[in-house]
Amino acid sequence: MPVENSGLAVLSDQLVLVTVLLYVFAMIGYALDLGFGRPRSRARAAGAEAGADAGTEVRADAVLATVGGGAAPPAGGAAGPAGASAETAEAVEAAGRDVPVEKEPSSWASRAGTVAVVLTWLGWAAHLSAVLTRGISVDRWPWGNMYEFVVAMCLAAVTAFLFMDLRYRVRFLGAFVTVAAALGLGFSVKYLEVQAGPVVPALNSYWIAIHVSAAIIASGLFTVAGVCGILYLVRKDTALRLPSREDLDRIAHRAIVFSFPIWTFAVIAGALWADKAWGRYWGWDPKEVWAFITWIAYAAYLHARATAGFKGRAAMIVQLIAFACLLFNLVGVNVFIGGLHSYAEVPG
Amino acid sequence: MSETERTGRAGVAVETPSPAGQKPAVRPASFGAVAWARWFWRTLTSMRTALILLFLFALASIPGSLWPQRGIADAKVAQYFRDDPGLAEWLDRFWLFDVFRAPWFAAIYLLLFVSLIGCVLPRAATHLRELRRKPPAPPRNLVRLPHHASFDASLTVEEAAARLRARRYRVTTGPGWVSAEKGYLRETGNLMFHVALVGILVAVAMGALYGYRGNVLVVEGEGFSNTVAAYDRYIPGQQVNAESLEPFSFTVDDFQATYIAQGERRGQPLDYSAKLKVTDAPGAAERDYTLKVNEPLDVDGTLTYLIDHGYAPTFKITDGKGQVAYDGPVPCLVAQPSTFTSECTIKVPDAQPQQLGILMGFLPSGVPMGGEWVSVFPGAANPLAQVYGVFAGDLGMGNGRPQSVYQLDPESLKKMKPLVMKAGELPAGQKPDLPGGAGAPVTQADPLAVGQKLDLPGGAGSIEFTGVKEWVALQITHDPGRMPALVFSALAVLGLVLSLTVRRRRVWVRVKNEAVATGEPDGSAPGLRHIEVGGLTRTEGGDFGEEFAGVVAALNPGVKDAR
């Protein structure tokens, strides 16, 4: 009988609530930044214009920037050539910043954005502590049931966003990622929570650390991509305050390119575990079927994005179908179908 | 099959590999068979078709998760046939209980794989040619490339080539220019990934043809040796020879199940372990092995898994002539997994003067509750055997009809005489027509504890509950495809990572002929030439900007010299 530390388990539950609050406050900050800060699309348009007006001079600057170790933006094309890198887009954005606009954007709004980032990091720390204390309280990996899995998946999504933000400036996604994480956490607390405790023998294996962790990380990244996909379809070309379609497309693609191999690995690790636990590496258990469908759907996205005629909107829709499959595999299979993975312990 | 390569912009002639799969399939004007075949092949191997097939593949898998599948959930399939035979028959006609063995499912994935092979083979040929070819000459105007720089330096073509080679570029030179290319691993990885997928398919097929699977139930103290006859259920692949089974054997000495004893999760299993004595081959030394859920026994690639467990109470049955007609364990089926309330059937064909059939309930932790005895915990804390019915007569075992060992034959049961009954407590489907009045059976209310004996009325003998053992259900699997499948899966992941992270990129350097500044004749100050560098990557994303800056810095160490 493993030692259960109920004090830590209670602390974990409280930390989850703290996390939700912090994410909600952060979301408000991001929203203020988006709503009252500089409209992002206008800045980009300004950058592109400046590039076109300045002509060769800008190009010369770009050359210098390149030599100096920076990035070389293609001459005045916000759309960019097919080979445009993130740096190129950022450089265009930076160029946009240097262009004087009639009215300075309100600085309190951008400060709200900074505060939001800090709040997100605090929330992330609370979130991480919640997962850790849950794990310590039951002396095992803290993703043995659906509640724990969803909490960890939200953590992975926020982590993916925060680390992306360090590198690629994706603050404009903040409001949407934090709201998704807060909703996910709220949902799991309300509908999925089960008392902390040991797992059934089949789950008691080191493979839980490998298979489930990989699935969580991949799901978190897919969530970020899914958020981008929804925004992409929701925004109209005139909605200047929302992030631009190119940005959303780029970030979604990047997240999926990163997470697709991880998901592949998660499926293979699952097969290896099934080989140890159930006597076959692949048996078309409903969870396996849907993991496989999800994998195919993301593979289809990667192919579609590289195929003329499917690029952009169509590829984004494929991506969202894939994300729907992922969510169905997470929730639907456990709730409606069952199967060997049904010890995910959905309450009720 | 993965990515269409992008042609270069700004007048850059980048040779795009154009395998058959990427060309638009033009419908032939003349209707010759060869032309049609070519059109069909082109269409099949086109990216669009591959995409559609991928979608179909995913869609076709969905019914396999919605309806129970044979071989995975046989009991649920049987339930479907009982509940709605008409519907079930129709579903069965469309193979919806065998989706993953259905011809239409096979058609989709075989087409997909043919399409994949048709796409990968020409691409592999193209890639091999590219690997041997030198990087192409630079475009006329390097400044129009997405990445470019120009500066004056004392750089010669040879020096530039050497510096690019040092950065592991493949380099070729011409009059006044250097052309360098890197990132061939992208396409290599892409091809490797797709070939590995075909490999996985082959490995799975190999496992299905040359592997076998079997189930057996073993009671503590009993043994198993790996022969076809020893299995309760044996499912061989088409190419498996019964002689080729790995000749190992083992005895199950002990089985232990551990449960949570208190709290909200009371009764949840924590651990199962079976102590085995294994003989790897006839004549080999015995070794101990602890079989657990995630730790199968591996004898030279044949794996034994612990799948299920249950109780096998032991009984000593004495017949009407005073002889011991049965003495041993009776494996019982679990009726209620949370408490392990089990149902047992004992057939005593050796009993004299009449055969005996006994139906019993087994309660591992029995307590009285409202006049009934129920089990409240899966562990054997207070094992009780509740007699449901004892019948005398012909068990019907010699009539040639197959019988389940876990059930009395219902036809025969109708003709048997009940000796002892627990009123109204027979398992469904096993309730005989009870004779009333004279000759009515003795009723038995309280269950037997270990060591207790029930004397049958009319001197028909006795039943003694002598002890409790447990049984384990084992699955024994031999799948020669599993290691190849693992290797191909690993290759697939490696190929995938390469094809998604490596980028094909080209760098050109042009050294202008005329010197912009003449050097000192004595060589103390080198002459400066105008240098142009252009860079191109054909796949988006990543940090080529940074890398390009690094290349420029390497070509022009004195950055201050840059114009």
From TrEMBL, chain A:
Work out whether the entry's keyword set contains Cell membrane: no
- Location relative to the cell: Membrane
| Residues that span the membrane, as ranges | 15-36, 112-132, 144-163, 170-188, 208-234, 255-274, 289-308, 320-344
- What positions does the domain Cytochrome c assembly protein occupy? 143-341
InterPro entries, sorted: Cyt_c_assembly, Cyt_c_biogenesis_CcsA, Cyt_c_biogenesis_CcsA/CcmC
What are the entry keywords? Cytochrome c-type biogenesis, Membrane, Transmembrane, Transmembrane helix
Regarding the membrane, this protein is recorded as:
Multi-pass membrane protein
Just give the chief location class.
membrane
User: Where does the record place a coiled coil?
Assistant: none
Protein name (record): C-type cytochrome biogenesis protein CcsB
Where is the organism placed in the taxonomic lineage, from the top?
Answer: Bacteria, Bacillati, Actinomycetota, Actinomycetes, Streptosporangiales
Automatic annotation (TrEMBL), chain B:
Q: Which UniProt keywords apply?
A: Cytochrome c-type biogenesis, Membrane, Transmembrane, Transmembrane helix
Stored InterPro entries: Cyt_c_bgen_Ccs1/CcsB/ResB, ResB-like_domain
**Pfam name, any one:** ResB
Annotated signal peptide: none
Primary location:
membrane
Segments carrying the region annotation (Disordered) are 1-25
Subcellular location as annotated: Membrane
Keyword RNA-binding carried by entry:
no
Superkingdom per UniProt:
Bacteria
Q: How does it sit in the membrane?
A: Multi-pass membrane protein
Report the residue ranges that make up the ResB-like domain in this protein. 47-549
Indicate the transmembrane segments per the record: 50-67, 104-125, 191-212, 483-502
Protein name listed in UniProt: Cytochrome c biosynthesis protein
Species name: Streptosporangium pseudovulgare
Top-level taxonomy = Bacteria, Bacillati, Actinomycetota, Actinomycetes, Streptosporangiales
